[in-house]
Amino acid sequence: QKKIFSGIQPTGSMHLGNYLGAVRKWTELQNKRENITISIVDMHSITMPHNPPALRENIFLMAATLLACGIDPSHTTLFVQSSVLEHSELNWILNSLTTMPRLAQLPQFKEKSRTVRDVPLGLFVYPVLQAADIMLYKATHVPVGADQVQHIQLAQHLARGFNTRYGDMFPICNPLIEENEGSRILSLREPSKKMSKSDLSPKGTINLNDSPDQITEKIKKAVTDFTSDISYNPNARPGVSNLVNIHALVTGQSIESVVEEAKQLDTAQYKERVSEAVIEHLRPIRELINKHLSNRNELIYILEMGSEKARKVAQATMTEVKQRLGLGTVG
Ligand code: AQP
Predict the structure, then answer these.
(1) Residue 266 CB: number of other CB atoms within 10 A?
(2) ∠ CA(4), CA(6), CA(9), 5° rounding?
(3) What letter does residue 15 receive in the DSSP assignment?
(4) Under a CB-based contact definition with an 8 Å cutoff, are residues 249 and 20 in contact?
(5) Is 112 annotated as catalytic?
(6) Contacts with 162 (C-beta within 8 Å, 6 or more apart), sequence order
(7) Contact assessment for residue 39 and residue 79, using Cβ atoms and an 8 Å cutoff
(8) pLDDT band for position 180 (50/70/90)?
(9) Domains of the chain listed by start with CATH number
(10) Is 64 in the pocket of ligand 1 (CB under 6 A)?
(11) Tally of CB atoms within 10 A around 12
């Protein structure tokens, strides 16, 4: 049976990129009754300077949002990474199998390290912790957005390295990434970059808990170009194509039919149409987020149950890892 693992950082509200690029896929897999584990990866969120009270709130917001998107904790293991200590333990062990040049070439590190003066070591080894997240659950499949390919390749490399040195133990995981270029949602303000929680210009990011007015405003201000008709050409017209892509994904239509229907519209009119479609799609999710957020005890209970399930698997893996490495006194 497939074992599926994925994670999301509680660095802010879940946005349309996270949702369309990854989270929607998770609920689809869950609804096909696959064995799936989802972690709110809070330890990844401290690799950049952060605000502790905001992080705690964002953990609950992320849990509420995942439930609102359809994650069902009676089927999916949903937990907070820092409550399962084995993630740090395996991370340390994998650090010894990783080389510094390999980490230095990863694009997300290059991008983020540019934005801070003194680069934290945690930011550098972040992908190793991600590999530990995946390997602890012996995941065979990892559904992620297109921006994560290189990180998954590192996890594959580390699993191979471990198996060669210490004997076969870890599956070589497969990334599950939507093949079409549309799986990467771009910033509305800077369509050369992906939509991101930590974007310095928040107007480029549509959050799942944004109000209809906020969504309308952000889409109205989205950067397009000087051509007023609507067409899909991600290289020549990244801004408009990003809107077409988002429109197609939230309505379930093909790119062609979205473009065909927009034939008579100019960019300003088209933006209104996209806003309506996004607002309509997100309305029930937003209502559910608020409902779940208002019941914090229920969220704590769900996350605790999830941690217990995750911990059992993680502890069994670590017992085996320590035996293989000759660590400790038992086994
Ligand atoms: N713009 C995007 N388009 C498609 N997929 C995306 N993902 C993120 N941004 C896009 C996918 O969402 C999942 C969870 O992402 P994450 O929270 O682990 O980290 P991230 O990739 O670093 O996302 P952000 O929003 O940009 O967070 P910050 O700003 O905190 O770094 C992943 O599967 C990711 O591929």
Answers:
(1) 12
(2) 170
(3) B
(4) yes
(5) yes
(6) 94, 97, 135, 169, 170
(7) yes
(8) low
(9) 3-177+296-325 (3.40.50.620), 185-290 (1.10.240.10)
(10) no
(11) 20
Q: Give the pLDDT confidence score for residue 182 in this predicted structure.
A: 66
Asked if 110 is an active-site residue, the reply is no
Distance CA 53, CA 55 (A): 5
Q: Are 216 and 275 in contact (CB under 8 A)?
A: yes
Give tens-digit pLDDT for 182-222: 678 999 999 999 999 878 788 999 999 999 999 999 999 99
Residue 243 has pLDDT above 70, yes or no: yes
Distance 287 CA to ligand 1 centre (A): 23
Residue 16 per-residue DSSP state: H
- Is 235 exposed, middle or buried (CB count within 10 Å of its CB: 0-12, 13-18, 19+)? exposed
Measured distance CA(305)–CA(3) in Å, rounded: 19
- Residue 198: per-residue pLDDT: 79
Task: Single out the residue of 218, 193, 199 nearest to residue 275, CA to CA.
Answer: 218
Active-site entry in 3, 112, 218, 271: 112
Q: How much distance in Å is there from the Cα of 175 to the middle of ligand 1?
A: 15
Retrieve residue 303's tokens.
């996350």
Nearest CA, atom 16, ligand 1: 8
* Cα dihedral across residues 59, 60, 64, 70: positive or negative: positive
Centroid of ligand 1 to alpha carbon of 229 (angstroms): 30
Q: How far is CA 181 from CA 57, 178, 220, in A?
A: 33, 8, 23
Q: Please answer whether residues 69 and 36 qualify as being in contact, where contact means their C-beta atoms are separated by less than 8 angstroms.
A: no
The ipTM is 0.95
Per-residue model confidence (pLDDT) at position 168: 97
Query: How many CB atoms neighbour CB 146 within 10 A?
Result: 18
Q: What is the pTM of this model?
A: 0.95
Q: Ligand 1: does its nearest atom lie under 6 Å from the Cβ of 178?
A: no
- What does the pLDDT read at residue 172? 98
> Distance from the CA of 14 to the center of ligand 1, in angstroms?
9
Of the candidates 264, 213, 224, which has an alpha carbon nearest to the alpha carbon of residue 246?
224
